[in-house]
Design goal:
Blueprint: E1 4-7, H1 17-30, H2 39-43, H3 50-57, H4 63-84, H5 92-101, E2 103-108, H6 114-122, E3 130-133, H7 134-137, H8 141-152, E4 157-161, H9 164-172, E5 177-180, E6 192-194, H10 200-207
Parallel strand pairs: 1-2, 1-4, 2-3, 4-5, 5-6
Length: 208
């Protein structure tokens, strides 16, 4: 049995598509980009880091400017989410029960302040032992998973996420991947699949 669960954030623990779409469009308008995105446009880039997203949305823009615009988006949406939060994919009581059986961690391709906004807005700080993000390390998700494992002495871990990128990250870290099929993406060959978050405990018991 694993003794630690490492989670992706967007599409796995919460759904920020609606507020991020609104806030990003405001920042794009403020910067005179002429770019307007839909919620589907945002879903399609979930799981990528800000540098990758800036290149997708503004391929012809000078790199420093497009990355500055996405950094403005990050500052604005972190401030909003810290105060208002976003819909969760789980029941808090279930997560609290899960934390009594496993050490919980988060690894996400997000900017600094984003995981903190999740934890603070939902008052979940004490249930997650550690977290890491690309915005702080500049490393890939797979490398950040390995960092969290090494930092916390985790030997038997599972990564739970909703995209092929998450699956690749788990493979990089050489740990099993559970696909959160209720999220934003797909998976190729996960160890298991959950259709809703509350299936996780049962799946873990069957899988191990």
């Amino acid at each position: 049995m694993p003794n630690a669960l490492i989670f992706d954030l967007d599409g796995t623990l919460w759904d920020t598509v609606a507020p991020l779409t609104l806030i990003w469009n405001q920042v794009f308008q403020k910067n005179g980009t002429g770019k307007v995105i839909s919620e589907d446009d945002l879903r399609n880039v979930m799981g990528k880091n800000l540098q990758e997203i800036s290149a997708i949305y503004f391929p012809d823009m000078e790199r420093s400017r497009r990355e500055d615009i996405l950094n403005q988006c990050a500052v604005a949406h972190c401030a909003y989410l810290k105060e208002h939060g976003a819909p969760l994919f789980f029941d808090k009581d279930f997560l609290i029960g899960l934390s009594a059986k496993y050490e919980l961690f988060i690894v996400s391709n997000c900017p600094c302040g984003y995981i903190e906004a999740f934890l603070e807005s939902q008052n979940l700080q004490k249930y997650f032992k550690d977290y890491e993000m690309s915005g702080r390390t500049g490393k890939s998700k797979g490398e950040n998973i390995k960092t969290v494992m090494e930092r916390n002495g985790c030997l038997d871990c599972v990564y739970i996420g909703d995209t092929v990128g998450d699956e690749t990250a788990a493979r990089t870290a050489d740990i099993p991947f559970i696909h959160a099929a209720y999220g934003f993406g797909s998976a190729n060959n996960p160890a298991a699949v959950i259709q809703n978050f509350n299936e996780l405990l049962e799946i873990l018991e069957k899988l191990f």
